[in-house]
Amino acid sequence: MLNESSFENIALKLSATQQQEFAKHKEAAKAINVFFINFLLKEMRKTIPENGFLKQNSGQKFAQSML
To answer: Residues with Cβ < 8 Å from 26, sequence gap 6 or more?
Structure first.
């Protein structure tokens, strides 16, 4: 299984140009992960019913929309 150290070991064996390209791909992968996690959390929040116990005010809704 590949992990962070595996990718770093691969990067050390690459030329300078390849290392720059590798860094770009790594940053793109991180951005995709952040987007996916934010999307997942937003969709999960939609499934929580808004009853008297978990009611949110407009400030809380705004703050969560910014996450």
So the answer is: 7
| Alpha carbons 2 and 61: distance in angstroms, whole number | 38
CA angle 38, 35, 57 (to 5 degrees): 25
Query: Considering its fold, how many domains does the chain have in total?
Result: 1
> pTM of this prediction?
0.56
For 26, the domain range is 4-66
> pLDDT for 54-63, tens place per residue?
677 788 778 7
Give the Cβ contact number of residue 36 at 10 Å: 10
